Protein backbone atom coordinates (compact mmCIF):
# COMPACT_ATOMS: atom_id res chain seq x y z
CA UNK A 1 0.00 0.00 0.00
CA UNK A 2 1.38 3.40 -1.03
CA UNK A 3 0.12 6.47 0.83
CA UNK A 4 0.61 10.19 0.29
CA UNK A 5 0.69 12.06 3.62
CA UNK A 6 -0.13 15.75 4.09
CA UNK A 7 0.59 17.68 7.30
CA UNK A 8 -0.77 21.23 7.73
CA UNK A 9 -1.85 21.52 11.38
CA UNK A 10 0.33 24.48 12.32
CA UNK A 11 3.28 26.28 10.74
CA UNK A 12 4.84 23.51 8.69
CA UNK A 13 3.62 22.16 5.35
CA UNK A 14 4.80 18.56 5.12
CA UNK A 15 4.26 16.01 2.35
CA UNK A 16 5.55 12.42 2.11
CA UNK A 17 5.07 9.14 0.30
CA UNK A 18 5.16 5.98 2.42
CA UNK A 19 5.17 2.57 0.79
CA UNK A 20 4.22 -0.48 2.89
CA UNK A 21 6.81 -2.67 1.20
CA UNK A 22 9.64 -0.17 0.62
CA UNK A 23 9.25 2.25 3.54
CA UNK A 24 9.48 6.04 3.30
CA UNK A 25 10.09 6.92 -0.37
CA UNK A 26 10.42 10.70 0.01
CA UNK A 27 9.38 13.56 2.23
CA UNK A 28 9.46 17.33 1.82
CA UNK A 29 8.89 20.13 4.26
CA UNK A 30 8.28 23.84 4.03
CA UNK A 31 8.62 25.66 7.35
CA UNK A 32 6.83 28.98 7.89
CA UNK A 33 8.83 29.85 11.01
CA UNK A 34 10.65 32.78 9.35
CA UNK A 35 7.30 34.37 8.41
CA UNK A 36 5.82 33.97 11.92
CA UNK A 37 9.10 34.97 13.59
CA UNK A 38 8.30 38.65 12.96
CA UNK A 39 5.22 38.28 15.18
CA UNK A 40 6.81 36.18 17.95
CA UNK A 41 4.43 33.25 17.35
CA UNK A 42 2.16 31.59 14.80
CA UNK A 43 -0.47 33.84 13.15
CA UNK A 44 -3.27 31.40 12.20
CA UNK A 45 -4.61 33.24 9.14
CA UNK A 46 -1.13 33.68 7.66
CA UNK A 47 -0.46 30.00 8.29
CA UNK A 48 -3.59 28.90 6.36
CA UNK A 49 -2.82 31.16 3.40
CA UNK A 50 0.76 29.93 3.21
CA UNK A 51 -0.29 26.26 3.28
CA UNK A 52 -2.52 26.99 0.26
CA UNK A 53 0.51 28.23 -1.67
CA UNK A 54 2.95 25.54 -0.60
CA UNK A 55 1.18 22.20 -0.54
CA UNK A 56 0.55 21.54 -4.25
CA UNK A 57 4.17 22.32 -5.30
CA UNK A 58 5.37 20.19 -2.35
CA UNK A 59 3.21 17.29 -3.56
CA UNK A 60 4.73 17.58 -7.05
CA UNK A 61 8.29 17.69 -5.63
CA UNK A 62 7.69 14.79 -3.28
CA UNK A 63 6.16 12.56 -5.97
CA UNK A 64 9.10 13.39 -8.28
CA UNK A 65 11.62 12.60 -5.52
CA UNK A 66 9.79 9.33 -4.79
CA UNK A 67 9.78 8.61 -8.53
CA UNK A 68 6.10 7.77 -8.52
CA UNK A 69 2.98 9.15 -10.13
CA UNK A 70 -0.38 10.03 -8.66
CA UNK A 71 -1.80 6.88 -10.27
CA UNK A 72 0.45 4.68 -8.11
CA UNK A 73 -1.11 5.94 -4.87
CA UNK A 74 -3.48 3.69 -2.89
CA UNK A 75 -4.61 6.32 -0.40
CA UNK A 76 -4.12 9.82 0.97
CA UNK A 77 -3.66 10.67 4.63
CA UNK A 78 -4.00 14.17 6.06
CA UNK A 79 -3.82 15.67 9.53
CA UNK A 80 -7.43 16.09 10.69
CA UNK A 81 -6.51 17.58 14.10
CA UNK A 82 -5.67 18.79 16.63
CA UNK A 83 -4.35 22.07 15.27
CA UNK A 84 -5.40 25.37 13.72
CA UNK A 85 -8.83 24.97 12.09
CA UNK A 86 -8.02 26.96 8.92
CA UNK A 87 -4.64 25.31 8.43
CA UNK A 88 -6.15 21.84 8.93
CA UNK A 89 -8.88 22.60 6.39
CA UNK A 90 -6.31 23.38 3.69
CA UNK A 91 -4.65 19.95 4.02
CA UNK A 92 -8.00 18.19 4.41
CA UNK A 93 -9.47 19.95 1.36
CA UNK A 94 -6.50 19.12 -0.88
CA UNK A 95 -6.33 15.52 0.35
CA UNK A 96 -10.05 14.88 0.00
CA UNK A 97 -10.24 16.56 -3.44
CA UNK A 98 -7.26 14.59 -4.75
CA UNK A 99 -8.55 11.32 -3.32
CA UNK A 100 -11.97 11.91 -4.87
CA UNK A 101 -10.43 12.65 -8.27
CA UNK A 102 -8.20 9.56 -8.09
CA UNK A 103 -11.00 7.42 -6.64
CA UNK A 104 -8.88 6.24 -3.72
CA UNK A 105 -9.61 6.46 0.03
CA UNK A 106 -8.63 9.43 2.18
CA UNK A 107 -8.08 9.14 5.91
CA UNK A 108 -7.88 11.88 8.54
CA UNK A 109 -5.01 11.25 10.97
CA UNK A 110 -4.58 12.45 14.57
CA UNK A 111 -1.48 14.67 14.60
CA UNK A 112 -0.23 13.22 17.90
CA UNK A 113 -0.71 9.67 16.65
CA UNK A 114 1.61 10.70 13.82
CA UNK A 115 4.24 11.89 16.32
CA UNK A 116 3.71 8.81 18.49
CA UNK A 117 4.29 6.37 15.62
CA UNK A 118 7.14 8.35 13.98
CA UNK A 119 9.93 6.33 15.72
CA UNK A 120 8.54 3.29 13.86
CA UNK A 121 9.97 4.88 10.68
CA UNK A 122 13.53 4.67 12.01
CA UNK A 123 16.04 1.97 11.11
CA UNK A 124 15.62 0.18 14.44
CA UNK A 125 11.96 0.64 15.33
CA UNK A 126 10.62 -0.22 18.80
CA UNK A 127 8.26 -3.18 19.25
CA UNK A 128 4.89 -2.73 21.00
CA UNK A 129 4.11 -2.21 23.82
CA UNK A 130 6.02 0.90 24.85
CA UNK A 131 5.71 4.02 26.98
CA UNK A 132 5.68 7.24 24.94
CA UNK A 133 6.71 10.71 26.04
CA UNK A 134 4.95 13.15 23.69
CA UNK A 135 6.50 16.58 23.94
CA UNK A 136 5.40 19.08 21.32
CA UNK A 137 4.53 22.76 21.14
CA UNK A 138 0.91 22.13 22.09
CA UNK A 139 0.96 18.89 24.10
CA UNK A 140 2.86 17.10 26.83
CA UNK A 141 1.62 13.61 27.60
CA UNK A 142 2.88 10.25 28.77
CA UNK A 143 1.07 7.39 27.04
CA UNK A 144 1.06 3.64 27.39
CA UNK A 145 1.00 2.32 23.82
CA UNK A 146 -0.13 -1.29 23.26
CA UNK A 147 -0.49 -1.02 19.47
CA UNK A 148 -1.80 1.28 16.73
CA UNK A 149 -4.82 3.07 18.20
CA UNK A 150 -4.40 1.44 21.62
CA UNK A 151 -3.34 4.38 23.74
CA UNK A 152 -3.79 4.92 27.46
CA UNK A 153 -3.07 8.34 28.97
CA UNK A 154 -0.80 7.99 32.03
CA UNK A 155 -0.14 11.67 32.68
CA UNK A 156 -0.17 15.11 31.06
CA UNK A 157 0.54 18.75 31.65
CA UNK A 158 -1.93 20.69 33.75
CA UNK A 159 -1.02 23.99 32.08
CA UNK A 160 1.67 24.84 29.48
CA UNK A 161 3.09 22.25 27.09
CA UNK A 162 6.84 21.57 27.22
CA UNK A 163 7.45 23.21 23.83
CA UNK A 164 5.31 26.17 24.87
CA UNK A 165 7.47 26.56 28.01
CA UNK A 166 10.60 26.62 25.80
CA UNK A 167 8.96 29.15 23.46
CA UNK A 168 7.76 31.46 26.26
CA UNK A 169 11.10 31.29 28.08
CA UNK A 170 12.86 32.14 24.83
CA UNK A 171 10.64 35.19 24.51
CA UNK A 172 11.50 36.28 28.07
CA UNK A 173 15.18 36.02 27.15
CA UNK A 174 14.67 38.00 23.95
CA UNK A 175 15.31 35.03 21.66
CA UNK A 176 13.35 34.40 18.49
CA UNK A 177 10.57 31.96 17.61
CA UNK A 178 10.62 28.93 17.77
CA UNK A 179 12.25 29.04 21.17
CA UNK A 180 13.35 25.44 21.70
CA UNK A 181 16.32 25.39 19.33
CA UNK A 182 17.31 28.96 20.37
CA UNK A 183 17.31 28.08 24.09
CA UNK A 184 19.26 24.92 23.41
CA UNK A 185 21.95 26.81 21.45
CA UNK A 186 22.25 29.54 24.09
CA UNK A 187 22.31 27.01 26.95
CA UNK A 188 25.42 25.39 25.43
CA UNK A 189 27.34 28.54 26.41
CA UNK A 190 25.78 28.79 29.88
CA UNK A 191 26.38 27.46 33.39
CA UNK A 192 23.30 25.49 34.52
CA UNK A 193 24.46 25.52 38.16
CA UNK A 194 24.65 29.32 38.52
CA UNK A 195 20.92 29.77 39.21
CA UNK A 196 18.58 27.33 40.94
CA UNK A 197 15.16 26.98 39.32
CA UNK A 198 12.26 24.94 40.77
CA UNK A 199 11.20 21.51 39.48
CA UNK A 200 7.38 21.83 39.76
CA UNK A 201 5.46 18.64 40.53
CA UNK A 202 8.58 16.50 40.62
CA UNK A 203 7.35 14.91 43.85
CA UNK A 204 3.62 14.97 43.01
CA UNK A 205 3.37 11.18 43.11
CA UNK A 206 1.70 11.05 39.68
CA UNK A 207 2.79 11.42 36.08
CA UNK A 208 1.39 14.91 35.52
CA UNK A 209 3.38 18.04 34.75
CA UNK A 210 3.11 21.77 35.36
CA UNK A 211 5.42 24.21 33.62
CA UNK A 212 3.81 27.61 34.14
CA UNK A 213 5.49 28.12 37.55
CA UNK A 214 8.87 27.43 36.01
CA UNK A 215 8.21 30.07 33.37
CA UNK A 216 7.25 32.56 36.12
CA UNK A 217 10.45 31.70 38.01
CA UNK A 218 12.45 32.45 34.85
CA UNK A 219 10.62 35.78 34.46
CA UNK A 220 11.45 36.75 38.06
CA UNK A 221 15.07 35.69 37.67
CA UNK A 222 15.37 37.67 34.44
CA UNK A 223 13.98 40.81 36.10
CA UNK A 224 16.65 40.49 38.80
CA UNK A 225 19.41 39.83 36.25
CA UNK A 226 18.57 41.68 33.04
CA UNK A 227 22.21 41.87 31.85
CA UNK A 228 22.89 40.18 28.50
CA UNK A 229 25.69 38.09 29.99
CA UNK A 230 23.35 36.11 32.28
CA UNK A 231 20.92 35.00 29.56
CA UNK A 232 22.97 31.90 28.71
CA UNK A 233 23.11 30.82 32.37
CA UNK A 234 19.33 31.28 32.73
CA UNK A 235 18.72 29.32 29.51
CA UNK A 236 20.98 26.52 30.79
CA UNK A 237 19.22 26.46 34.19
CA UNK A 238 15.80 26.35 32.49
CA UNK A 239 16.80 23.57 30.11
CA UNK A 240 18.27 21.56 33.00
CA UNK A 241 15.02 21.91 35.00
CA UNK A 242 12.90 20.84 31.98
CA UNK A 243 15.14 17.83 31.33
CA UNK A 244 15.10 16.78 35.00
CA UNK A 245 11.30 16.88 35.14
CA UNK A 246 10.66 15.18 31.78
CA UNK A 247 13.24 12.47 32.47
CA UNK A 248 12.07 11.78 36.04
CA UNK A 249 8.41 11.37 35.03
CA UNK A 250 9.28 9.23 31.99
CA UNK A 251 11.42 6.88 34.09
CA UNK A 252 8.67 6.73 36.71
CA UNK A 253 6.22 5.72 33.95
CA UNK A 254 8.58 2.91 32.88
CA UNK A 255 8.76 1.68 36.49
CA UNK A 256 5.00 1.86 37.05
CA UNK A 257 4.20 -0.05 33.87
CA UNK A 258 7.18 -2.44 34.17
CA UNK A 259 8.04 -1.40 30.64
CA UNK A 260 11.47 -1.66 29.02
CA UNK A 261 10.89 0.65 26.06
CA UNK A 262 10.50 4.42 26.04
CA UNK A 263 9.63 6.27 22.85
CA UNK A 264 10.12 10.03 22.65
CA UNK A 265 8.20 12.04 20.07
CA UNK A 266 7.38 15.65 19.23
CA UNK A 267 9.52 18.72 18.65
CA UNK A 268 11.06 18.92 22.14
CA UNK A 269 12.36 15.39 21.53
CA UNK A 270 14.96 17.05 19.27
CA UNK A 271 16.59 18.58 22.37
CA UNK A 272 20.07 17.12 22.76
CA UNK A 273 20.26 17.44 26.54
CA UNK A 274 16.86 15.78 26.95
CA UNK A 275 18.01 12.93 24.70
CA UNK A 276 21.15 12.47 26.80
CA UNK A 277 19.21 12.57 30.11
CA UNK A 278 16.67 10.00 28.87
CA UNK A 279 19.36 7.74 27.42
CA UNK A 280 21.30 7.74 30.72
CA UNK A 281 18.14 7.23 32.81
CA UNK A 282 16.91 4.36 30.65
CA UNK A 283 20.28 2.68 30.77
CA UNK A 284 20.23 2.77 34.57
CA UNK A 285 16.81 1.01 34.46
CA UNK A 286 17.89 -1.57 31.89
CA UNK A 287 15.42 0.00 29.44
CA UNK A 288 15.94 1.34 25.93
CA UNK A 289 14.96 4.72 24.56
CA UNK A 290 13.87 5.27 20.95
CA UNK A 291 13.85 8.62 19.17
CA UNK A 292 12.53 9.48 15.73
CA UNK A 293 15.17 10.56 13.22
CA UNK A 294 15.95 14.23 14.00
CA UNK A 295 14.12 15.57 10.93
CA UNK A 296 11.03 13.53 11.87
CA UNK A 297 10.90 14.89 15.46
CA UNK A 298 9.21 18.14 14.54
CA UNK A 299 6.11 18.31 12.32
CA UNK A 300 6.41 16.45 9.01
CA UNK A 301 4.38 14.64 6.37
CA UNK A 302 6.15 11.29 6.83
CA UNK A 303 4.54 10.57 10.20
CA UNK A 304 1.10 11.35 8.74
CA UNK A 305 1.68 9.11 5.70
CA UNK A 306 2.83 6.32 8.02
CA UNK A 307 -0.04 6.61 10.53
CA UNK A 308 -2.49 6.85 7.60
CA UNK A 309 -1.03 3.71 6.02
CA UNK A 310 -1.44 1.82 9.30
CA UNK A 311 -5.12 2.81 9.38
CA UNK A 312 -5.85 2.36 5.66
CA UNK A 313 -4.21 -1.08 5.78
CA UNK A 314 -7.05 -2.15 8.04
CA UNK A 315 -9.57 -0.59 5.68
CA UNK A 316 -10.37 2.20 8.13
CA UNK A 317 -11.93 5.35 6.71
CA UNK A 318 -13.03 8.61 8.24
CA UNK A 319 -16.31 8.91 6.38
CA UNK A 320 -16.98 12.58 6.98
CA UNK A 321 -14.90 15.47 5.66
CA UNK A 322 -14.06 16.96 9.01
CA UNK A 323 -11.22 18.47 10.97
CA UNK A 324 -10.99 18.52 14.76
CA UNK A 325 -9.03 21.47 16.13
CA UNK A 326 -9.33 19.85 19.59
CA UNK A 327 -9.03 16.06 19.70
CA UNK A 328 -8.20 13.78 22.63
CA UNK A 329 -5.62 11.16 21.61
CA UNK A 330 -6.83 8.61 24.19
CA UNK A 331 -10.26 8.65 22.48
CA UNK A 332 -8.88 6.85 19.39
CA UNK A 333 -9.72 3.20 18.82
CA UNK A 334 -7.63 0.58 17.05
CA UNK A 335 -8.30 0.37 13.28
CA UNK A 336 -11.23 -1.91 12.42
CA UNK A 337 -11.76 -3.55 9.02
CA UNK A 338 -14.38 -1.55 7.10
O1 LIG B 1 6.03 18.75 17.37
P1 LIG B 1 6.27 20.13 16.95
O2 LIG B 1 7.11 20.37 15.70
O3 LIG B 1 4.94 20.92 16.69
C1 LIG B 1 3.79 20.73 17.45
O4 LIG B 1 3.06 19.74 17.16
O5 LIG B 1 3.61 21.53 18.38
O6 LIG B 1 6.92 20.88 18.19
C2 LIG B 1 7.30 22.23 18.13
C3 LIG B 1 7.91 22.59 19.48
C4 LIG B 1 8.18 24.08 19.62
O7 LIG B 1 7.63 24.52 20.84
C5 LIG B 1 9.70 24.14 19.62
O8 LIG B 1 10.20 25.22 20.40
C6 LIG B 1 10.07 22.81 20.23
O9 LIG B 1 9.14 21.90 19.68
N1 LIG B 1 11.44 22.40 19.88
C7 LIG B 1 12.43 22.24 20.79
C8 LIG B 1 13.60 21.91 20.05
N2 LIG B 1 13.28 21.88 18.71
C9 LIG B 1 11.95 22.18 18.64
N3 LIG B 1 12.43 22.35 22.13
C10 LIG B 1 13.60 22.13 22.77
N4 LIG B 1 14.75 21.84 22.15
C11 LIG B 1 14.81 21.71 20.80
N5 LIG B 1 15.97 21.41 20.20
ZN1 LIG C 1 3.55 18.33 16.13
Question: Could you please describe the fold and organization of this structure?
Answer:
With 338 residues, the protein is α/β, with parallel strands linked by helices. The protein folds into 2 domains: 2-117 and 296-331, Nucleotidyltransferase, domain 5; 128-291, ATPase, nucleotide binding domain (Nucleotidyltransferase, domain 5). It contains 10 helices and 10 strands. The chain has helices at residues 33-37, 44-65, 85-102, 111-117, 162-172, 179-187, 212-224, 231-257, 272-285, 301-313; strands at residues 2-7, 12-19, 23-31, 75-81, 106-110, 130-135, 140-147, 150-156, 261-265, 288-290. The strands form 2 sheets. It has a 5-stranded mixed sheet, with helices on both faces. The radius of gyration is 20 Å and the shape is globular. The model has no long low-confidence stretch (mean pLDDT 94). The structure holds 5'-O-[(R)-(carboxyoxy)(hydroxy)phosphoryl]adenosine and zinc ion. 5'-O-[(R)-(carboxyoxy)(hydroxy)phosphoryl]adenosine binds at residues 10, 136-138, 163, 166-167, 178-181, 184, 266-268, 270-271, 298-299.
Spell out the blueprint of helices and strands:
Layout: E1 2-7, E2 12-19, E3 23-31, H1 33-37, H2 44-65, E4 75-81, H3 85-102, E5 106-110, H4 111-117, E6 130-135, E7 140-147, E8 150-156, H5 162-172, H6 179-187, H7 212-224, H8 231-257, E9 261-265, H9 272-285, E10 288-290, H10 301-313
Parallel strand pairs: 1-4, 4-5, 6-9, 9-10
Antiparallel strand pairs: 1-2, 2-3, 6-7, 7-8
Helix pairs in contact: 2-3, 4-10, 5-6, 5-7, 5-8, 6-8, 7-8, 8-9
Residues 111, 115, 136, 266, 299 line the site of zinc ion (ZN).
Amino acid sequence: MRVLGIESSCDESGVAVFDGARGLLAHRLYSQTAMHGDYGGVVPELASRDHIQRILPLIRDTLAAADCGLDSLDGIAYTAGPGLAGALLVGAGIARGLAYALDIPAVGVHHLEGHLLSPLLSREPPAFPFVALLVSGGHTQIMQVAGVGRYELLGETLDDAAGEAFDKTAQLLGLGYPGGPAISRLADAGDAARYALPRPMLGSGDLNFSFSGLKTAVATLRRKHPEDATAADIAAAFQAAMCDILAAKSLDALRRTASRRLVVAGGVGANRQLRAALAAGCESLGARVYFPELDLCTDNGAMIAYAGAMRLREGAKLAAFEVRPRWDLASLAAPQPA
